[in-house]
Design goal:
globular; 14 helices; about 500 residues
Length: about 500
């Protein structure tokens, strides 16, 4: 909250300078000085990954964050210039640089363009790659469909990318709607087919887990999956953009992500015209348990003049729901974790509003390395997990509207106009494919040997092509009615080739 103060020092007189310095020193001692969520996530404020060095990767052509063990390879004859937004703008030798108005939906950017446009988003991929390299790589038995899960039946699909085509070579039914991994798989398919020659991608095989807790405790040693999130203590899971990048769950009104971005445009009004309150809507009972962080939020904000915070109970009609795109009408938006991570943040950052996030978070998503809690590139406002400082935060920013507006605009520039575009998502997924291949210690096969009715050994293609699988009716899977459905356990595997 002091970045604007420091930025104005050069433009005012000596007397004002002394005044500003005194204010600065006083606020430095304040308990409300912002803490660093990114540091708690294992990243630096600019997306740096805090990990041990592994010099085996130094010669790899990869998308490195500044403090990872990797060494970024600069494009030939390129120049880098500072931009007003969080990420620097890199101009390639052919004069290309990312222009969100032109490129936000360009799903087929080259690797070089992806690196130039979104340099800060790959930290989570690099963390996973380096961890698995230190463990000797990923073996085929680590990606088998998981049975005997400790918490509930996990919906999983085993996927194969071979010669640039996407296949499903295994499926296990589970609780939570099946559409999640159909949407996630569609995002992968979209990223693959968007480039001119998908066959340049390496052949890889992996399992996608559709649950909020993809690797719950007690964990299966060595189990490796792709998922929407991971708990901070879970080193094995690879985090991809969550399924909401295609569309929200079938029961949700947000719908397709691109359609949501289009609808939200009309609410990107000037900051001073927005409602001067903090908005939050959500359930306190998530995953059949009480969320303490959400419960505390509702309690702390009760009867506050700045609060538009309400619990929603769909069964009783409690609360007043707000359409997701209409959240952009408020100056301040509050984000909380839920059952694990919350997919809501990817939508909130599409607003030009100041977002308040409690920290430290227990789960991460693919773009959290870009979150910046302070400094000139601050793009959200950090709060304590018990929200005990929320009243002071709101009172401060309601009085310092210029600072709140600066944070809101940085949120829009950093996320809506860059890191949460469909183009950024496609780049992330393709880079995930490349980095996974570097630590994959088996050779994926498209065909398997089978015997026909005459006993002759023949080759048979494994599984189904994505184009066929996505329209294939799943095997029957019966689960009990609520409330027993959520923790239902089953070892039913539909197929695994």
């Amino acid at each position: 909250m002091l970045a604007n103060v420091r930025g104005k020092v050069l433009t005012i007189g000596v007397a004002s300078v002394l005044t500003v310095i005194l204010i600065y020193l006083a606020l430095q001692e304040s308990e409300y000085s912002p803490t660093r969520l990114a540091s708690n996530l294992g990243y630096g404020s600019a997306g740096d990954l805090d990990t041990s060095k592994d010099t085996s990767w130094e010669d790899e052509d990869t998308f490195a964050s500044p403090s990872t063990s990797t060494k970024p390879v600069s494009p030939p004859a390129s120049t880098t210039k500072s931009a007003s937004s969080h990420a620097p703008t890199t101009t390639l030798s052919d004069g290309w640089e990312f222009d969100w108005k032109r490129d936000e939906r360009n799903l087929g950017l080259s690797q070089e363009q992806c690196k130039a446009a979104f340099p800060l988003q790959y930290a989570e991929i690099e963390r996973a790659r380096d961890w698995h390299a230190s463990q000797g790589g990923i073996k085929e038995d680590q990606i088998k469909l998981w049975i005997n899960e400790p918490d509930k039946a996990h919906g999983q699909i085993r996927m194969l990318i071979y010669d640039g085509d996407l296949y499903v070579v295994g499926e296990k039914q589970g609780v939570v709607d099946r559409a999640r991994y159909l949407q996630g798989g569609s995002m992968i398919y979209r990223a693959i087919t968007a480039i001119p020659d998908p066959s340049v991608l390496p052949n890889i095989e992996f399992t996608l887990d559709r649950m909020d807790h993809p690797n719950p405790e007690p964990r299966r040693p060595g189990r490796v999956a792709w998922a929407w999130t991971r708990q901070m203590t879970d080193n094995d899971t690879w985090v991809m953009p969550d399924f909401n990048g295609w569309a929200s769950s079938f029961w949700d009104t947000v719908g397709g992500y691109r359609a949501f971005r289009e609808r939200s445009k009309k609410y990107l009004t000037p900051f001073n015209e927005k409602t001067k309150k903090a908005l939050w809507r959500g359930q306190i009972n998530v995953g059949q348990k009480i969320s303490e962080v959400r419960k505390s939020l509702v309690e702390v904000s009760k009867d506050k003049p700045w609060s538009d915070i309400e619990e929603i109970r769909w069964d009783s009609g409690l609360g007043h729901p707000v359409q997701m795109e209409e959240h952009c009408k408020w100056q301040f938006l509050v984000h909380t974790e839920g059952n694990s991570w919350s997919g809501r943040l990817r939508n909130l950052v599409n607003c030009n509003s100041a977002i308040i996030i409690h920290n430290p978070l227990n789960y991460t998503a693919h773009f959290y390395s870009v979150l910046t809690p302070d400094g000139p590139n601050q793009n959200y406002i950090p709060a304590k997990n018990d929200w005990s400082d929320l009243d002071d935060i709101m009172n401060y920013y309601l009085k310092h509207q210029d600072e709140a507006e600066r944070i809101a605009e940085e949120t829009r520039r950093t996320f809506r106009d860059r890191y949460m575009t469909p183009a950024a998502e496609a780049c992330y997924i393709r880079q995930m494919i490349y980095e996974w291949a570097k630590v994959q210690k088996f050779d994926p096969k498209l065909y398997k040997q089978v015997k026909d009715d005459d006993g002759e050994v023949k080759e048979k293609q494994r599984g189904y092509s994505w184009e066929r699988f996505v329209f294939r009716a799943p095997a029957r899977f019966d689960i009990p009615p609520p409330p027993d459905d959520y923790f239902f356990k089953s070892n039913q595997i539909d197929f695994e080739d």
